[in-house]
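Bench notes, bay 3.
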Amino acid sequence: MVVKSELEKLGLHYISVELGEAEILETISPEQLSLFDEGLKKSGLELMDDKKSMLIEKIKNSIIELVHYSDEQLKINLSDYLSEKLNFDYTYIANLFSEVQGTTIEKFFIAHKIERAKELLVYDELNLTEIADKLHYSSVAHLSNQFKKTTGLTPSHFKKLKHKRRIGLEDM
């Protein structure tokens, strides 16, 4: 909504505005670009015009959407999914992501799956078997091992710790 509002203030027409991307009908002047950037910054947003940074954000958003907002299980590997969704060779995006983020796509994916598991444990609506199924783990043991490796705690021990809270998505 902020992006749409800022574009409208500048009299610019857009085709689409999605998370991390806006398609504008007109050619934007350097002055408009500067005003747009200033308007976004006032709302805590940042204009990215670097293609590599935009690709990194698309990778992150694709993984976050997949883990946190979709219950659909991937029918293909994560690498194939990202490659098809972003129209880039997986080796290229994996190397770029690792270089810029200092971690692999796989570790980023696992970190988000574990954060989602923590969230579901805190909500206390599903048991561990149901959480493992929801997050598409092959077994409860696989989820538990990955959870312990990532957090240092078993899922049941984590659940008992009421003071231990999740990390916000923006802090990951």
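Next record in the batch:
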Amino acid sequence: MPEKQFKIPGSEIKPLAEGHGGCFATDMITVDGQKVGYMYREKPDFPEDSGWRFFSGQESEAYLEDAGHTAIYDVNTIANYDPGIIALLDAPVGSAFERRGWFGKFVAVPFEPPDEADA
């Protein structure tokens, strides 16, 4: 498998949202450079995990089933790809937000935990 070519080189990551811990994000954000379209916060999987999960909103079920399309990042890294998430990072576990409308503002949506039975 070829090495991922990230849209923002590591040397260009700025301290925008440090101290939030780790998160999961898809390649549509970190490789393709799409904005976050959907984000939710679930119970963390490990001590350094913030619980945040970030998606462009364009991922198909088949895309998400390929673990190679998702990786663990520092939340600060994803904030560099989309600073629009920063104001929402202190939301509690069980929060979910979707980018909507002409101006692409995040709105709170009902949190629907992923179906772990399929994993």
